Amino acid sequence: MSKSSAAMPLPRNHVEVEPAEPAVEVRGIVKRYGTQVVALDGVSLAFRAGELTSLLGPSGCGKTTLLKIIAGLMQPTAGEVLVRGHTVAGPGPDRAFVFQDFALMPWATVLRNVAFGLELKGVARDQREETARRHIARVGLAGFEHRYPHQLSGGMRQRVGLARALAVDAEVLLMDEPFSAVDEQTRRKFQEDLLALCREERKTFIVVTHSIEEAVYLSDRIVLLSPRPGRVSEIVVPEIPRQGTPDEIRRDPVYIDTVEDIWRGLRRYVE
Question: Which top CATH class is 1-94+219-271?
Fold first, then answer.
């Protein structure tokens, strides 16, 4: 595990355990822009199948860059990414990406947007539309199949992006600040919906977020990245109780303490 030279204070529920059966492995990733800017420096991680991992750190630490490298949308300067032991050379059907800015086709209906990945895979129209309709309903948009993106709220457009990612049945879902464009009430509902999807789908979720509270609430593991050049500073395993209601979980002392521990580690980077 890569460590920064100035590691964050150790959270009280920090657990230093390498995950078994990784779905995704990141080995020695370096990303440079030109000769001056080093975005990532020697990042090595393993992501266990069926878990949700958040990438958290100060602005500019390389969270989205790392996510795009895992997706195959960007090539590293050095190092490699493996999905189920196979080296990533570019985008592939084993990974789906949910963009921060939705990335929907404005001229296409909700149904066409959600079915688009299946269309690219050559799935017959009837089958891909049936699959798309099922996932549109799963994200709470049944009845909106023939609307266009400009007719939807920001939260609804983000649900379309999530439905599109789910429709292609990728093993790994990569989400770049998926809830940043919605209000707090919608954000909390999305968080609860995402946890339900994680339980149902048992896929590997890797989520970039700037919100400590969101990372603690959602994650099986939280990877804290140091300021540029981004390195793995700490890995936190939130050991919060999950049996209560969402409000009970957020009021639990373990949840509150975990949020505060992480904030104390990150605060020096924003002072």
Answer: alpha beta
Closest C-alpha among 98, 102, 100, 99 to residue 157: 102
Residue 103 reports pLDDT greater than 90: no
Amino acid letter, residue 118:
L
Tell me the mean pLDDT in the region 136-164.
90
pLDDT, tens only, 181-196: 677 888 888 888 888 8
| 146: β partners | none
Please measure the distance between the N-terminal and C-terminal CA atoms of the chain and give it in whole angstroms.
Answer: 27
One-letter identity of residue 232: V
pLDDT over 60 at 107, yes or no = yes
CA–CA gap between residue 96 and residue 236 (Å, rounded): 25
Whether the CB-CB separation of 173 and 96 falls below 8 Å is answered with yes
Rounded to whole angstroms, how far apart are CA atoms 65 and 213? 22
Give the domain ranges of the chain. 1-94+219-271
- Which is nearest to 223 in space by CA: 21, 75, 70? 70
The SS3 assignment for 246 reads helix
Residue with tokens 């429709």: 167
Q: How far is Cα 177 from Cα 100, in angstroms, rounded to an integer?
A: 5
